Amino acid sequence: MKIPTLIPAIDIIDGKCVRLTKGDYAQKKVYDDDPVAVAREFERLGFKRLHVVDLDGAKAKHIVNEATLKAITGATSLTVDFGGGIKTDEDINRAFAAGAAMVTVGSIAVTHPELFLAWLTKYGPDRLILGADVRQGKISINGWLEDSTVDLLPFLKRYVEAGVKHVLCTEISRDGTLQGPATALYKEIMAEYPQLQLIASGGVGSIDDIKALAVAGIPAVVFGKAWYEGRITPDDIQQLEQQ
């Protein structure tokens, strides 16, 4: 059993580390006032990757928490992927200038596919993650506040054929619920595109959920709330990595 790449998440509102439930900004819980300290602790525990989401930016449709991103990348050597509010050339340039190693872009791939493809050509498939946020089989955009009419698999097909290698797929109805990831959905994606570096996101509530993703052959997983709520511990991660 190959363990997925483990990617802890820091979601930011007002410069603070928060989590939402099912993408609902009204269901916000603040876990820490200092995302940089949280990132340092992830690094100390041996994590190599970090997923940072600018929730203010996703809502405002432009990057907002750029300073926090820069502080995190300046204080750690974590490989940070950053998403939320990347809508223009200026936004993506600011994200990379602030130290992001990779950026996650979702809404633009739906609303302005030609711009996404231009970024894919300019920055390359190793620096661009396609964000596929899904609710009832349809792609959602703009911080999950709007549902599109675009179906998931045709959406992926277009971009995989164009050269996309990394996809972050979040099942919104499970996000923040701790009720388990959409493993069947991820298996369906991997069956269709076995070469994809798929990152599962949403619903992870225990170390057993991560084990289930490993058994399903999912390459990577993002988790947040389960960690902050103490449902996944450093000891759990250590034992997992020893298996």
Report on this structure:
- With 243 residues, the chain is of the alpha/beta class.
- 38% of the residues lie in helices and 30% in strands.
- The protein has eleven helices and twelve strands.
- It has helices spanning 35-44, 55-60, 66-75, 89-97, 107-111, 113-123, 152-161, 183-192, 207-215, 225-228, 234-242; strands spanning 5-13, 16-21, 24-32, 49-54, 79-83, 102-105, 128-135, 138-141, 146-151, 166-171, 197-201, 220-223.
- An eight-stranded parallel beta barrel has the order 1-4-5-6-7-10-11-12, surrounded by six helices.
- α1 (35-44) packs parallel to α3.
- The longest helix has 11 residues, at 113-123.
- It is globular, with a radius of gyration of 16 Å.
Strand order of the largest sheet: 1-4-5-6-7-10-11-12
Ranges where pLDDT stays below 50 over 5 or more residues in a row are none
Shape descriptor: globular
User: Average pLDDT across residues?
Assistant: 94
What is the count of helical runs?
Answer: 11
Number of separate strands: 12
Classify the helix fraction into a percent range: 25-40%
Terminal CA distance = 8 Å
Radius of gyration: 16 Å
Taken in chain order, the helices and strands follow as EEEHEHHEHEHHEEEHEHEHEHH
